[in-house]
Design goal:
CATH superfamily: Pyruvate-ferredoxin oxidoreductase, PFOR, domain III
Structural class: alpha/beta
CATH class: Alpha Beta
Strand content: 15-25%
Protein name: Pyruvate synthase subunit PorC
Helix content: 25-40%
Number of helices: 6
Distance between the termini: 32 Å
GO molecular function: oxidoreductase activity, acting on the aldehyde or oxo group of donors, iron-sulfur protein as acceptor
InterPro entries: Oxidoreductase_gamma_subunit (IPR051626), PorC_KorC (IPR011894), Pyrv/ketoisovalerate_OxRed_cat (IPR019752), Pyrv_flavodox_OxRed_cen (IPR002869)
Number of strands: 7
Number of domains: 1
Organism: Tepiditoga spiralis
Pfam families: POR
CATH architecture: 3-Layer(aba) Sandwich
Order of helices and strands: EHEEEEHEHHHHE
Strand order of the largest sheet: 2-3-1-4-5-6-7
C-alpha cells in the first residue's frame, strides 16, 4: 500500500519568508509527533526572484525526496505571481489555494482560472500592523492551520515562543503570536 503524504507547496519571492515558513511548519509538525520534510527550490538566487518551498507531512517516516507535484495546499506568499500557471499546476479542485492578497477569492479565481477552494488573507498588511515588517510567513502559517488542522495552533504558538524568544525581544515574540492568531482568524475561503 503506498504511503499517503499531506503535501504543501509554497510560492513566493526570495526574501519573503516562504522558505522559513516551510521549515517552521515542518518543525512544528515534528513537535506535534508527526513526520515532516521541508525543502526549497530556487531559480536565480537573488532577492525578489520567484521561488518555491515544499512540505511533506505524514504519520510514517517520509522516504520521498522529490518536489511536490500534486499538493493538498498551495500557499502563494506574493500575489504578483498569480498569473503564473505554475501556481495551480497539479492542484486538484478539491484541494486549497491560499493567497496573501487584498483581492477576494472570486478575483483570485478570475486571475488563476482555478475552480477549487480559494482562501485569501491580507497577510502582508497584518504583518505590517502586528510586527512592523512586511514578512507574512507567520500569518500564512496561521491561515494554513485554520484551513487544514495539519498541526494544532497551540503547538505552532509554542514553537514560535520557543524559537523566537532565543533571538528576539518579548515584544517581537508577542507580535508574531498576534500575527499567527490573526491569520487563523481572518482567512476567508470561497467554498
Amino acid at each position: 500500500m503506498p504511503e499517503k503524504y499531506f503535501e504543501v507547496r509554497w510560492h513566493g519571492r526570495a526574501g519573503q519568508g516562504a522558505k522559513s515558513a516551510s521549515q517552521f511548519l515542518a518543525e512544528a509538525v515534528v513537535e506535534a509527533g508527526k513526520f515532516a520534510t521541508s525543502f526549497p527550490e530556487y531559480g536565480a538566487e537573488r532577492a525578489g526572484a520567484p521561488m518555491k518551498a515544499f512540505n511533506r507531512i505524514a504519520e510514517v517516516p517520509i522516504r520521498l525526496r522529490n518536489n511536490v507535484q500534486h499538493p493538498d495546499v498551495v500557499l502563494v506568499v506574493d500575489d504578483t505571481l498569480l498569473g503564473n500557471p505554475e501556481i495551480t499546476d497539479g492542484l486538484k479542485e478539491e484541494k486549497i489555494l491560499v493567497v496573501n492578497t487584498v483581492k477576494t477569492p472570486e478575483e483570485v479565481k478570475k486571475i488563476t482560472g482555478f475552480n477549487g477552494k480559494i482562501a485569501t488573507i491580507e497577510a502582508t498588511n497584518i504583518a505590517l500592523e502586528e510586527i512592523g515588517r512586511g514578512i507574512p510567513n507567520t500569518v500564512m502559517i496561521g491561515a494554513l492551520v485554520k484551513l487544514t488542522d495539519i498541526v494544532p495552533l497551540d503547538v505552532v504558538k509554542t514553537k514560535i515562543n520557543h524559537a523566537f524568544a532565543k533571538k528576539f525581544s518579548k515584544e517581537i515574540v508577542d507580535a508574531n503570536m498576534r500575527a499567527v492568531d490573526r491569520g487563523h482568524q481572518e482567512v476567508k475561503i470561497n467554498g
